[in-house]
Design goal:
The protein has about 290 residues and is an alpha/beta fold. It contains 12 helices and 10 strands. Helix 9 runs parallel beside helix 11, helix 9 packs antiparallel against helix 12 and helix 11 packs antiparallel against helix 12.
């Protein structure tokens, strides 16, 4: 039987040698076509090669959430400071102005809510034609590695990848974690690599120990989720550490829109992502803006 966590003897990840690329700034995307590169360049700033995504898709399974009671008020005030808006088609269409000209990371999987016993059962909830109408820069699909829904979620992912490839729309595979799921380095080494090898053009995951190995082993960009609400300084440390260890982007939601000062926080995270501010420097910047 194959090793469930991949090759346990795998040790050499050459973390000090970046993956080769030619002229395009996005890891592993040298050989995709022009349209996909154009969309990826909207997500990952060509000057820095990095991305700050603002996630506000929580309502698709949580309903009304603190900080997202009014998307049209809470999120629109933050949009100008991020590279990409990650949301559902309903939230974006009803509550986000199309004049921001930001990349759209469109949530296309759904199927279970907090009201059900299990939130791991999802299906493809948005077809490719509507993603095109939404002018999506990428489509996001949740996967549940290591659960009874693993096969179904990976099937969802592959179907979206195939549809996206027909129209040069990238797919972001999302590594889900839960109470009964692992959060170990070995798990993230497995999950991120699987999604990339199935064809995802980018992978959203979580920060972990030895993250530099996870990033080195994944041939496409990793975007690190902010996860649960943390104190502002800790959230900035998470972003800084993830980027220093190989992440190409940060996708924060609650750590921005639930901050004591969301506008100051989004600007501070942007400084970490695009201007290499340290966490300490960014926190000082946050306090300066907050106290004005």
């Amino acid at each position: 039987m194959a090793d469930l966590i991949g090759n346990k003897e795998a040790k050499e990840y050459y973390v000090d040698i970046p993956q080769a690329r030619s002229q395009f700034n996005v890891k592993g995307m040298d050989n995709v076509d022009w349209g996909m590169k154009d969309r990826l360049s909207r997500i990952f700033n060509p000057k820095t090669g990095r991305s700050l995504m603002l996630a506000f898709d929580h309502g698709y399974f949580m309903g009304s959430t603190r900080g997202l009671e009014r998307i049209d008020i809470g999120i629109q005030s933050l949009a100008e400071d991020v590279d990409a808006l990650m949301g559902t088609r309903g939230a974006i269409r009803t509550s986000i102005s199309p004049t921001f000209n930001k990349a759209v990371a469109l949530r296309v999987s759904a199927g279970s809510t907090m009201a059900s016993e299990d939130i791991i059962r999802e299906t493809i909830a948005v077809d490719i034609e509507d993603a095109i109408r939404m002018n999506a820069s990428c489509m996001a699909v949740q996967t549940f590695i290591g659960t009874e829904e693993e096969r179904t979620s990976l099937d969802n992912l592959v179907k979206v990848i195939d549809a996206g490839n027909r129209y040069s729309i990238p797919t972001m595979g999302v590594v889900a974690v839960g109470k009964s799921m692992e959060r170990t380095t070995r798990f993230f080494l497995l999950a991120t690599r699987v999604l990339a090898e199935l064809g995802a053009q980018m992978v959203k995951t979580y920060y972990c120990d030895d993250f530099d190995k996870v990033a080195a082993a994944c041939p496409v960009p990793l975007v690190v989720a902010g996860g649960k609400k943390l104190p502002e300084k800790e959230a900035l440390e998470l972003a800084y550490n993830a980027l220093q260890n190989g992440a190409a982007g940060i996708d924060m939601g609650r750590n921005i829109f639930q901050s004591e000062d969301p506008k100051a926080m989004v600007k501070a995270v942007a400084k970490v992502v695009h201007e290499n501010f340290t966490a300490e420097h960014a926190y000082e910047y946050f306090l300066e803006l907050k106290n004005k």
